[in-house]
C-alpha cells in the first residue's frame, strides 16, 4: 500500500540521515525490483506510441531542427553504442544525453502528449526520451526499458500529487529531473545510494523559474523538459562514477523546499509505493486528443459540440460576451486571470496561443475542430471575425471547479468548467463539461486503437508508410524486444523531409 513520506525542512543542527530523506525514498522505489503489472505495460506501450506520434509531427519545426542538429554534432560517447535521434537514420547515433535532448524537444514541441495535473502540472511522457536513450546506449532490452519507464512515471506523478512548484513560480520540470534519474536507475539496476546521488544532482540542476511559460512564451518551452532529461542522464553518469550531490537536497536548511518552495515551515506528504508495491501511477495520467495545453482539452470538446448545435455562435455580432467559469489554474495560467495581453494578441507566438484559452475556445467554436498546425497559423489568428469574437471571451475562477480540479477522487477530478454565453439579442446559453472526451472518464476514452490512429495521422506527412508500420510493430512488442530491437526504437524521416529544412549553425 502507498506510504506517504513526510517531508519537511531540517535545520543544519538537526541531523537528517540520508535514509530519512525524500531523495533516498525515491531511490528505494527505483531500486525495488517489483514486477510491472500487465495493464501498466499496456499503457507504457500506448505512451511510447503517443510520444513518437507527436515527435513525428514536429520533425520540421524550428526548435526540433535546432535540437536535432545540436545532438548530431556530438559523437557517440565511449561507454556504449550511442542512441538514436528522431528523424535521423537509425544507424546514426549520438551520445545518450544529447539524444535525450533532441528527442525530448521533439516530443514536447507541439504540447500534444500525456499529462497529469494535481498540486503541480506535468507531462510524464517527458521521462521516456532520456530513459530510451540510455537503454539504447547500454544495450538494455525491452523488459528493462518498461521497468525504467514505469519508475519515471511513478516518481514524477507522486511528486506532482504532493508538491506545488508553480505556486512559487518554479517551472514544473523540477519534478522531471529526479523522476528521469530514478527511471534510468531502475533501467540500469543501480543500487539505492547511486540513485540517491543522481536524484539529488538532477533536482539541483533543473530548478528554474516559470518565466518560460509566462508572457510572450519562447521556444524554450519545448526545450525545458529536454534539458531536464539531459541533466538526468548526466547526473546518473556522475553518480555511477562515485560523485556525490547536495544533501539533503529537498529538506536542507538551504535546500529546495526552504528557499524555492514553501519555506522553513513547510511540510509535504509525498505518496510513494511501499516496498514490493507495483508502480501504477501511469494509469492516472491522460493523453491529449488536441495539440493544446491540457486544461484546454475539455473546452475544445465543448466548443466543437456547441459549434454543431449552434453554428450561429461563430458570428461575433451574435455574441455579447463569453465567460468560461473554471478552476484557479485554468483562469490564472491560460485564462484572462494571467493578465498577459499576449493571450489576446494575433501576433503572439504559437507557444503563447497554446496557453490562451480565450483564443483556443474561439477558434474551436468557429471551426468545430482543432488542428495542431492550422489552428495556430498566423492567418487563422488574424482572421477579423476571430479577433472580434476572441476579445469577448474571458475566464473567471469558480470555487467548485477549483475544488474538483484538486480532488483526490478520480471520479470527481475535473479540468473543465461552465460556459455562459450572453447573446446580443439578450438570450443566454449555458453549458458545461468536466473532462475531455479522450479522458478515461470522458465521452470517448483513448484506447490502443486511438493511439495508433493518432500516430498514423501525425506521421503521414513525415514518415513513409513502411516506416510507420515498422515502428508500430516494434512499439507494440515493447516488453519482448531484444537489445538490438530497442536500438531500432526510433522514427526515420522519409527521404527529403529533413534536407528540405536546413539546420541552423552554432558552435558545435
From TrEMBL:
SUPFAM superfamilies: 2-methylcitrate dehydratase PrpD. Pfam families: MmgE_PrpD_C, MmgE_PrpD_N. Residues 21-267 form the MmgE/PrpD N-terminal domain. InterPro entries: MmgE/PrpD_sf, MmgE/PrpD_sf_1, MmgE/PrpD_sf_2, MmgE_PrpD, MmgE_PrpD_C, MmgE_PrpD_N. Residues 290-477 form the MmgE/PrpD C-terminal domain. It comes from the Bacteria. Belongs to the PrpD family. PANTHER family: 2-METHYLCITRATE DEHYDRATASE, 2-METHYLCITRATE DEHYDRATASE-RELATED. This is MmgE/PrpD family protein. It comes from Agromyces larvae.
